[in-house]
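Researcher: We're teaching a course module on how sequence relates to structure. For the next exercise, students receive a sequence and then see the predicted structure as C-alpha cells, so they can try to spot secondary structure elements on their own. Here is the exercise chain.
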Amino acid sequence: MDWAPHSYRLVPRLHERWEARGKALPGFHTPHNPTHLLVYPEAVALTEVFCDLEWRRHIAMVREFQTANFYQHVAKRLNQPPDFARWLERPWTRLLRRNYESVPNPIQRWINEIRHKHAKTRTEFYERHAGFTRTPFPEIRHFK
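Model: And here is the predicted structure for the students to work with:
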C-alpha cells in the first residue's frame, strides 16, 4: 500500500499493473487511491517472502552488502525483471522542508527491523566463527 500512491514515479511497472487491475475491478480502485484488493497479489507475495524463515535468517545473518540475492528473490516473486531488484536496493528520495533526503523503502525498512532484532545473534555468531566461512548459520527456528 505504501508504494501505490506514488507508484507512477517510484515503481512504474507496478503502477501500470495496478492501473490495469483497477480498471478491471468493479468500483473505484486506482494506484492513487489504493485499496487492499488492488495490491492483494503483491501483498501476498511479499508476505510469503517475509514469513519465510530461511529468508528471515539470511537477512538477519548476512553482512549488509550480501543482500542482493534477497532483492532478486523479491523482484522475481513480484514478477518483475532483474533491474527491479537493483531499484529495490536504493532508498527513496523525498522532498522534506525544501531539502531532499533519502529514506528506506518498505523492503529496506523490513530488512532494517529484522537486522536490528537479530543484531546480537549476528554479532555473537561472527565473533565466534570469524574466519570460518563454512560455519552454518543458527537454525531457522530462531528467526520467527
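Model: If you want an answer key for the exercise: The first strand starts at residue 92 and ends at 96. The mean pLDDT is 87.
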